């Protein structure tokens, strides 16, 4: 409902016929009706009447003077008047040719406070109060109104296309010519989400479909409502979330290679030198540019280099348990307990943890030279202690008994 409410909230249209519940068709100028929420208002009346709280009222009516409706020079409306050009009373404000009260139901849909006579100072939900507006300016604008208003200070304030809720723009200062400032959208209509682009310290919002949230942005599903947020790494073309190491592809440029963390589907964007740091990866320019692990170029390879001319990957060191049979082949050691067998499959020079190197072979550190396990040795030791203890006890008993005899 919110999406529908604001989508139709500021559309100029023909007035509804009386039979359809329209109240302005007889007094409003052709094509000068629009909706504020579900309420029809008139923005310009036929001669002799002016809009007060959205309805056309005769220029001499007490409601007109009670709203402070005047022309731009401060004169009361006449028989030739069709709209108000200022609202010169407290709690009233000017909106599209009419004076509205913050205590009236229609006015409350636009503005919740008008503490300065004739000026809205706090927009209602879906609207923002215009910075620097005076009583001769329209002082409230719909969040989705991209036409906006130009105030007496020659500054223009606009909404954001497709925006349902927003924060007012910051006041424009120091401008010497017509300058435009847009509201900051916080929620969009329909299925669209807010996209924020920040450059040179300034942020600009727009409303986009989730499918359009790409090219360095991602849909942040943790935000309520969802948002289109920039990847943390400015070199990311696509990412899975905020934070470093979340890139899934990189933009063309200096840092165009995706270097993934071990076991991860995401990584960071680096230059060619960043790819080869530690010699564990090499730059791959086929398809999506990535830093591939040496093991992807040569199976079971740990460190490597790549020839830029031939694109050939040469392995300089194999993973633990493998040896370099050639510059492009890492072969498993014959004994699975071997960590290094750089002289050949059967020539072990280093064993894995918990194994000892003896005579070119790897034996378990838990086995002694007599082939008895540490468990067996412990059992024998305990049995020996029991036997010795029993013998000592017997001898003590024997000598004590003999002494008494």
From TrEMBL:
What SMART domains does this protein's entry cite? FU
Which Pfam family is one of those matched by this entry?
VSP
Record SUPFAM superfamilies: Growth factor receptor domain (SSF57184)
Task: Specify the superkingdom.
Answer: Eukaryota
Indicate whether ATP-binding appears among the record's keywords: no
Q: Supply the alphabetized keyword list.
A: Kinase, Membrane, Serine/threonine-protein kinase, Transferase, Transmembrane, Transmembrane helix
Q: Does the keyword Mitochondrion apply?
A: no
Name it.
Serine/threonine protein kinase
| Species of origin | Giardia intestinalis
Its ancestry begins with:
Eukaryota, Metamonada, Diplomonadida, Hexamitidae, Giardiinae
């Amino acid at each position: 409902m919110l999406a529908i409410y604001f989508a139709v909230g500021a559309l100029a249209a023909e007035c509804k016929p009386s039979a359809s519940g329209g109240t302005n068709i007889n007094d409003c100028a052709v094509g000068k009706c629009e909706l504020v929420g579900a309420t029809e208002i008139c923005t310009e009346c036929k001669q002799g009447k002016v809009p007060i709280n959205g309805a056309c009222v005769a220029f001499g009516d007490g409601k007109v003077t009670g709203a402070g409706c005047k022309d731009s020079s401060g004169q009361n409306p006449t028989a030739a008047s069709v709209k108000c050009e200022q609202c010169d009373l407290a709690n009233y404000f000017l909106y599209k040719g009419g004076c509205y009260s913050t205590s009236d139901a229609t006015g409350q849909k636009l503005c919740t406070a008008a503490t300065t006579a004739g000026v809205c100072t706090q927009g209602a939900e879906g609207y923002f109060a215009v910075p620097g507006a005076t009583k001769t300016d329209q002082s409230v604008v719909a969040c989705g109104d991209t036409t906006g208003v130009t105030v007496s200070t020659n500054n223009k304030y606009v909404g954001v296309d497709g925006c349902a809720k927003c924060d007012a723009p910051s006041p424009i200062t120091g401008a010497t010519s017509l300058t435009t400032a847009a509201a900051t959208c916080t929620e969009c209509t329909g299925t669209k989400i807010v996209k924020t682009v920040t450059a040179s310290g300034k942020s600009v919002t727009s409303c986009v479909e989730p499918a359009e949230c790409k090219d360095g942005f991602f849909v942040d599903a943790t935000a309520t409502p969802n948002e289109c947020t920039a990847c943390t790494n400015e070199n990311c073309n696509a990412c899975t979330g905020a934070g470093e190491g979340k890139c899934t592809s990189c933009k063309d440029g200096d840092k165009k290679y995706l270097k993934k963390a071990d076991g991860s589907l995401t990584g960071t964007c680096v230059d060619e030198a960043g790819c080869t740091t530690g010699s564990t990866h090499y730059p791959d320019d086929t398809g999506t540019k990535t830093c591939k692990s040496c093991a992807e170029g040569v199976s079971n390879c740990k460190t490597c280099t790549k020839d830029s001319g031939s694109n050939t990957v040469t392995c300089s060191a194999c993973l633990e348990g493998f040896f370099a049979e050639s510059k492009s082949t890492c072969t498993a050691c014959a004994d699975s307990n071997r960590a290094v067998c750089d002289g050949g499959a059967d020539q072990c020079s280093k064993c894995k943890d918990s194994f000892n190197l003896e005579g070119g072979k790897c034996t378990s550190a838990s086995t002694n030279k007599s082939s008895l396990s540490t468990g067996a040795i412990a059992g024998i030791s305990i049995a020996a202690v029991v036997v010795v203890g029993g013998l000592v006890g017997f001898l003590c008993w024997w000598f004590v008994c003999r002494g008494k005899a």
